[in-house]
Specification:
Blueprint (H helix, E strand, L loop, with lengths): L9 H18 L4 H16 L8 H16 L2 E2 L4 E2 L2 H15 L4 H8 L1 H8 L6 H6 L8 H13 L3 H20 L11 H24 L20
Antiparallel strand pairs: 1-2
Helix pairs in contact: 1-2, 1-10, 2-3, 3-9, 3-10, 6-8, 9-10
Length: 230
């Protein structure tokens, strides 16, 4: 475990990771985690912006890509990337198991108010959209009670997966053209999700650096390859 001050930006994260990176490369120069982290840092750097109100769409998208660089898996049977939902669920489970310093729990507690707001927002709940235009009635109050109960029961595993499912829905709305760029309708939820996603990625990178670097990182999606025409 590192004794240095907690990372507050991407440059700090790179410094935090560096000694583990060197140890990893000495043991296995072609280790896929080194490429994953390099890709992640590039996208997190692109998301850094001093103005907290500026480039909200870009920051959320770039941070998600950075996270995707870590959790993406190549399906060797189908010869294509594993589905996001399955890959992300497995990745978060491994991070929880490797979180010896309870960083995820600490962050979920620190951001309880913000996470509760995200998980209580009907517009980022897939069941709201499934009920829309049907005779089924969506109960927003049930969501509010549910997240309160999770915190009361200290069910941080479920909270983690729940908030990521909401962030993923917002990500899908942006990536698949289901929202207007810079829309006034979604500014608050995009901002909230961006804040939580940034803090969670920072915690995850610390977990990887200190504990999870030796896990099975599987094959990269679209690894760097030499020019076949050279």
């Amino acid at each position: 475990m590192h004794d240095s001050p907690p990372p507050v930006n991407v440059d700090d994260l790179k410094i935090y990771w560096d000694s583990t990176k060197q140890r990893l490369q000495r043991a296995c120069p072609q280790h896929p985690l080194a490429v994953r982290m390099h890709r992640t840092f590039s996208w997190l750097a692109a998301a850094e912006c001093e103005d907290p109100e500026d480039q909200l769409d870009e920051k959320l998208i770039f941070r998600w890509i950075g996270l995707n660089s870590l959790f993406g898996r190549w399906n060797s049977c189908d010869h294509e990337p594993e589905r996001d939902g399955r890959a992300l669920t497995g990745f978060l489970t491994v991070m929880e198991e490797c979180d010896k310093d309870a960083l995820i729990k600490a962050y979920l507690i620190e951001q309880q108010t913000l996470i509760s707001q995200i998980c209580s927002d009907p517009f980022v709940n897939k069941f709201f959209w499934k009920a829309l235009g049907t005779e089924r009635r969506f109960n927003q109050r049930r969501d509010e009670i549910s997240i309160q109960r999770m915190y009361g029961d200290e069910n941080y595993c479920q909270i983690l997966h729940e908030v990521f499912s909401r962030i993923y829905l917002v990500r899908c709305q942006l990536i698949h053209g289901a929202a207007t760029f810079g829309s006034k309708l979604n500014r608050e939820i995009v901002k909230q999700c961006g804040i939580v996603l940034k803090g969670m990625i920072f915690a995850i990178i610390k977990i990887i650096t200190d504990h999870a670097w030796s896990e099975n990182w599987d094959d990269l999606c679209y690894p760097p390859v030499a020019d076949s025409e050279g």
